[in-house]
Amino acid sequence: MARSPFLEMVRSEIRLRGYSLRTEKTYIHWIKRYIFFHNKQHPAAMGAKEVKSFLSHLANHGNVAINTQKTALNALAFLYNQILQQPLGDLGFQHATRQKSLPCVLSPGEVQAILHQLEGKYRVIFSILYGSGLRISECLRLRVKDIDFSRSCLTVHDSKGHKDRQTLLSSSLFPDLRTLIEQAVDLQQQDNLEGTGPSLPYALDRKYPNAFREPAWMFIFPSTGLCIHPFSHKRCRHHLHESVPRKVLRKATREAGILHKRVNCHTFRHSLATHLLQNGRDIRTVQELLGHKDVSTTQIYTHVVGQHYAGTTSPLDQLTL
To answer: How many CB atoms lie within 10 A of CB 170?
Structure first.
C-alpha cells in the first residue's frame, strides 16, 4: 500500500525533532484520523474550526477518555503549530471531565504471592518494577551499562519527559541479573557473527560503528528474534516487547488468587510508592525515585496510604466496640 507523501513528511519532521517512536506512531494515528474525519481534506486547507469539530466529535460521540482527547489535541497542535506554521490559537475547547481515581495498590503479601508464581527473567522484571519503581518500558529498555552493582543502583535513560534518573536496585536481584547479563552477552556475540547486534539509540551506530559489538549496549531483556530498525532500516535485536510480560502477569495474578484487583505492570510502581510512604520515607525521596516532575503527582499516594491529613487517625479507633 502506497504511503501518503504528506504523512511521510510529518513523520520525517517528528524524527527530526527527536521524538520517540511511540510518540511518532501516536501522532501519525491521530493526524490520519483527523484527515479521514474531514473526508480526506488536506490539513493546510483546514484550521481551528475543523480541529475543534474533530475534538468535539471525540468527546460527544466517541466517549473517549480525557487523556485520549489531550493526546489528539497535542498531535494536531504539533501539526499546525510546528509543521504547517498555522497556529491554532485558543480553540475554546473544553476537555471532558472525569472523576479523580486512586491507583490500584497491592499489599506486600500480594506482591510476594505474584512474584512466587513467576520464574526466570519474568520474576526479575516484576521485581525491578516493584523494587526500583520503573515503568515497564523503562525496565525492558535497560542495557548492561545501566546496572551498577557496586552502588546498588540502576540508571533510567531518556524516560518520560526526556529525563534520566537513578534509582534503587535490590541486592537480592544481583545473582539473577548477573546470569541474565551473561546470557544476553552470549546472544549478542552470536548476533555479532552475523553482523548484527542490539538496536541503538538515535544516530549512535553512525558515530560509533562498532557499538553493537560492545556488551555495554546489549539489552538485559532481549527479544527472541531479530527485526528491522524503523529508523536505520538495519537488522538488529530489540528488547522484549511489552505485551509479553503483560500476558505472563495476567496468568500469575490468577494463579496467586488475586481476583479482586485490576493488576497491571504499573501497579507494582504504585505499590512501591505507597509502601515507601507507609514505611516513613519522605515524599520528596519518593518523588525523586519515581522521576516525577511535580510533587503533586506523588501526593496521590498519600491518599492511598490513608494518612494524608498529617497522620490523623479516625476517632472511631479510640472506641471500644
So the answer is: 13
Cβ pair 161, 200 in contact under 8 A:
no
Measure the CA–CA gap between 214 and 281, rounded to whole angstroms.
39
Q: Which domain, by its residues, includes 58?
A: 5-83
Q: How far is CA 18 from each of CA 27, 95, 203, 297, rounded to the nearest angstrom?
A: 14, 28, 11, 26
Q: What confidence tens digit (pLDDT) does each residue in 7-46 have? A: 999 998 998 887 888 889 999 999 999 999 999 999 999 9
In eight-state DSSP terms, residue 168 is E
- For residues 260 and 112, what is the distance between their CA atoms, to the nearest angstrom? 16
User: Rounded to the nearest 5°, which phi and psi values hold at 196?
Assistant: -130, 180
Identify the burial level of 219 via C-beta atoms within 10 angstroms of its C-beta, where 0-12 means exposed, 13-18 middle and 19 or more buried: buried
Q: What single DSSP character describes residue 59?
A: H
Q: How confident is the model at residue 95 (pLDDT cuts 50, 70, 90)?
A: low
- Residue 94 falls within a domain, yes or no? no
> Catalytic amino acids?
135, 160, 266, 269, 292, 301
CA nearest neighbour of 83 among 12, 161, 162, 30:
12
C-alpha cell, 104 = 490500584
CA–CA dist 168, 95 (Å, integer): 37
* Domain count within the chain: 2
One domain, residues 71 and 120? no
